[in-house]
Amino acid sequence: MIPRDRLRIAVQKSGRLGDPSRDLLTRCGLRFRSSRDKLFCFGENMAVDLLLVRDDDIPGLIADGVCDLGVVGRNVMQEASLAAGGEASIQELRALGFGGCRLSIAIPQDQEWNGPQQLASQRIATTYPHQLGDWLRRNDVDAQIVTLSGSVEIAPKLGTADLICDLVSSGATLVANQLREAVVIMQSEAVLAGAAETPLDERGDLMELLLRRLDGVLNVRESRLLLLQAPRAALDTIVDLLPGQPIPTITTIEGQPEAISLQCVCSGNVSWQELEAMKRAGAQGMLVLPVEKMLA
Ligand code: ATP
Ligand code: ZN
């Protein structure tokens, strides 16, 4: 590995993952100045730079040591590692909770699905030949894989394949092409990928700092800060009603010995029904606030 004193992260230049990837890194406290050609963004406040590339290139850039980290779909990462013979030169460090989709086999709308054996000797169009091949082997199915570089969903209409194996999120593209999802091969989302080995120079420390901040952002994404006041006598009932049984901080209110103020971080949103139940128990002045960062 070539020693470098700045960390380099590959993110998708445009496309579905581009903006959310950069937003997430910004929330981790990184600030970037984009250069004129916009392929390289220099990190202004930390020694962390961005390389803006096609998502398909990200696993290779990490494996070759050109970038230390990358934000890429698990589907792209797994395809690359199967293509490299399952060699673990890169690893998934964190699941990032956006870019969710599934790699599925879809069949013509008017066909029934009776299980994998129905795929025997069919032609399946895909841009993910390794993952499809792997799934077919595991299910003991002998089908023909037609590898395409894009527009997979129109292959059955064009007669170049009988069915397809492609990414699905809402399913609208399938419906528009008279196809229906038959079986899910893998669940995907954007992940932070890194080399199997952590660099031993300054980049290792930067990576650790970034992962800690990332956890701080990811862990609180669904969290809410709940604030309320209540009569001291109602405290036990209200604590039992707190969603997710968080540990609350209770403070006294100056001049009101019979009242308390409560604050706690709830994992997940607090519903109207839960707030109403707390109100019936005596709580008032309830506030539910989003949490931006947390450092334990
Ligand atoms: P690039 O120009 O970078 O090669 P692309 O066309 O290959 O872009 P996008 O369509 O932007 O890539 O998809 C990027 C990733 O978004 C996919 O690899 C996948 O992980 C995720 N994704 C989420 N939902 C979908 C979907 N419905 N279709 C395709 N990809 C999806
Ligand atoms: Zn791509």
Keywords:
296 residues, alpha+beta, D-Maltodextrin-Binding Protein, domain 2, Alpha-Beta Plaits, 3 domains, seven-stranded mixed sheet, five-stranded mixed sheet, 9 helices, 34% strand, binds adenosine-5'-triphosphate, binds zinc ion
Point out poorly predicted stretches: none
Give the C-level CATH assignment of the largest domain: Alpha Beta
What pattern of helices and strands is seen along the backbone?
A: EHEEEHEHEEEHEHEHEEHEHEEHE
Q: Which ligands accompany this protein? A: adenosine-5'-triphosphate, zinc ion
N→C terminal distance? 33 Å
Number of strands: 16
* DSSP strand content: 25-35%
- The CATH topology assignment of the largest domain is D-Maltodextrin-Binding Protein, domain 2
Q: What's the structural domain tally? A: 3
Rough outline: flat
Number of helices: 9
* Overall pLDDT: 94
CATH architecture of the largest domain: 3-Layer(aba) Sandwich
* CATH level-4 homologous superfamily of the largest domain: Periplasmic binding protein-like II
**Assembly state here?**
single chain
The major sheet is characterized as: 7 strands, mixed
Helical fraction equals 25-40%
Major β-sheet strand ordering: 2-3-4-1-5-12-6
Helix and strand content put the structural class at alpha+beta
Using the CA coordinates, give the radius of gyration: 25 Å
